[in-house]
Amino acid sequence: MRSPFAIDLPDTLIAAARRGDEAAWSEIYRHFERPVYTLALRMTAHPDEASEVLHDTMLKVFEGIAGFRGSAPFWGWLRQIAVNTALMRLRRAERLQFSDDPPEPEPDDQRDADWLPAAATDAALLRRALHALPDTTRTVLWLHHGEGYTHEEIGRLMGKGASFSKSRVSRGLSQLRELLGVTRTEVHHA
Fold first, then answer.
1. Would 30 be classed as within a structural domain?
2. Residue 19 is part of which domain span?
3. Other beta carbons less than 10 A from residue 148's beta carbon
4. CATH code of the domain containing 171
5. What is the count of structural domains for the chain?
6. CATH number at residue 78
7. Is residue 13 within 8 Å of residue 38, measured between CB atoms?
8. Where would I find the RNA polymerase sigma-70 region domain in this sequence (predicted)?
9. Do 179 and 164 touch, CB atoms closer than 8 A?
10. Any idea what the Cα angle at residue 56 is, between residues 77 and 150, rounded to 5°?
11. Residue 80, Cα to own-chain centre: how many angstroms?
């Protein structure tokens, strides 16, 4: 799966941004606004927090672009800043818990599912199920399945080992199946 962050920028654009060119900054922001917001929303499950993560991430990118060495793709560097920013927000709010107690579910507004086509309804149901997971589990699931991080990388980000990530992904998938009312048999025959 190709990451939504995999946006190649010309070196000239990055160089212009380093010089403080506002048009270059605007272009970089436009390219990465949606992927950063989506990543933050998947990790935090709250639109306001996702907007704040987007804002904080872009500020860090703009402030730190002089330190970008170019040995890796720019988008990879920016994505790592976004992930770290979202994780820091969850840590500061003490929402990253390492117990298995599920959070209290938020009130559900069923109205949007009533008028959506089937595929969109399925996406809305999946989004609600993901948001019902504990923050840590949802974050690990998204980093692994949505962003393509390895268990080892996730373990390092969380200050844990690869086995932590593997068990969270396994448990999270089981919880998702339960929340969606999907049996293991249905998953294997789909």
1. yes
2. 1-96
3. 12
4. 1.10.10.10
5. 2
6. 1.10.1740.10
7. no
8. 28-95
9. no
10. 40
11. 11
CB 62 within 8 A of CB 25: yes
CA dihedral 38, 39, 41, 42 (to 10 degrees): 110
Mean pLDDT of the chain: 82
> Which contiguous run of DSSP H or E holds residue 50?
helix 47-64
92 and 121 part of one domain: no
Polymer length in residues for the chain: 190
C-alpha distances out from residue 27 to 4, 17, 122, Å:
16, 9, 34
The pLDDT tens digits of the residues spanning 73-115 come to 999 999 999 999 999 998 887 766 654 444 443 334 343 344 4
Pick left, alpha or beta for residue 158 (phi over 0 → left; psi -120 to 50 → alpha; otherwise beta): alpha
Integer Cα distance of 34 and 38 in angstroms: 6
| Single pTM value for the model | 0.72
